[in-house]
Design brief:
mainly alpha
């Protein structure tokens, strides 16, 4: 059997890698579009709130709550996209001292740790939402699970990004 990346086996591996990368690209594009729309919606809500407050000395019932929920979703999904783009916080002090195989192993271990942490938070959030999600929010009377669902959504997306990135890294040769 030949080296990884050679012959038909290597071709199949590259096709799988390209499919995973294409999936990541499409997912990121869709999430970024949703984030942009959410940011625009939040901007509109805040402009309307400020205008109502200072020009008309009035407000909209539930608008602050809605802006807060929108911000929570934007933060949650945005952090998952940052993980997918590998723009999360990292210290490369150790990786600079390692060779190509060591850097690859460290990158896989880091992604596994980040993915595992997100999976644990996702798993812990489900009983929390089940226990408290039916309580209505004060102003809008919308059940809290609407806002709370942002936690498993963001963590699930971050864990998915970690898994897809690990799958791509496992299939490639270490780079010098």
């Amino acid at each position: 059997m030949g080296r990884r990346g050679s012959g038909a086996e290597g071709c199949e591996g590259r096709i799988g890698e390209v499919r995973i990368q294409e999936f990541e690209r499409r997912l990121t594009t869709a999430l970024e579009a949703a984030l942009a729309a959410g940011m625009f919606a939040m901007f509109v809500v805040i402009v309307v709130l400020v205008t109502m407050r200072y020009l008309f000395e009035s407000g909209l019932v539930g608008a602050n709550e809605s802006a807060t929920v929108l911000f929570v979703y934007l933060s949650s999904v945005g952090s998952a996209v940052a993980v997918g783009r590998q723009e999360h916080i990292r210290v490369d002090l150790l990786s600079r001292t390692l060779g190509p195989k060591g850097r690859l192993a460290l990158e896989i271990a880091t992604l596994a740790l980040v993915g595992s942490l997100n999976a644990v938070v996702l798993a812990c959030s489900v009983p929390w939402i089940a226990a408290t999600g039916g309580v209505p929010m004060p102003a809008t009377q919308i059940p809290r699970f609407i806002a709370q669902t942002s936690v498993p959504l963001g963590c699930g997306l971050a864990a998915l990004y970690c898994c897809t990135r690990i799958a791509v890294l496992i299939r490639q040769e270490p780079r010098p």
